[in-house]
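Dear colleague,

Thank you for sharing your sequence with our group. We've completed the structure prediction you requested, and as agreed, I am returning the results in plain text so they can be pasted directly into your records. Please verify that the sequence below matches your submission; if there's any discrepancy, let me know and we will rerun it promptly.
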Amino acid sequence: MADIAFLLLIFFLVTTTMDSDSGITIKLPPHVEDLEVEPPPIKKRNVLEVLVNSNNQLLVEEKLMRIEQLRAMTKKFITNNGADPDLSDNPLKAVVSLKNDRATSYKAYIQVQNELKAAYREVREDYARNKFGRTFDQLSVDKQNEILTMFPQKISEAEPEKIGQE
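Please find the predicted structure tokens below.
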């Protein structure tokens, strides 16, 4: 009887799978020792400052904005190509700087992240449809890489600090 129980135990251990927890897939930059190398200069117009304060209010370029407006603003910023002097020179230079307060809720943080990433996806999708007449997913890997190179996702996240109420 003990042998049968042991065999059943081994059978169930071998045949069952363990679910691995999956979270948000964000690739963190590698840790760099404190180097005294200054970052390259970036024009202020090429940086879109996005802030989520402790009240979960969204401020873009120090102006209060609703989360529903963030995607359109980000798309306009990325695709400006120097037309508006307050927005980016071109998509290769456009950087979205995201900063949160330590008291920002996780839900607000994720909503902002989702809107920023969706803006990049939509810009790439629009370009694919206009230039190639297909969706981004229908393109060959070479054409997808071409679009990814033209519209790199540059979202810079500053370490959260106690910003306070804005």
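Summary note from our side: Helices lie at 2-15, 67-78, 106-132, 141-150.

Kind regards,
the structure core
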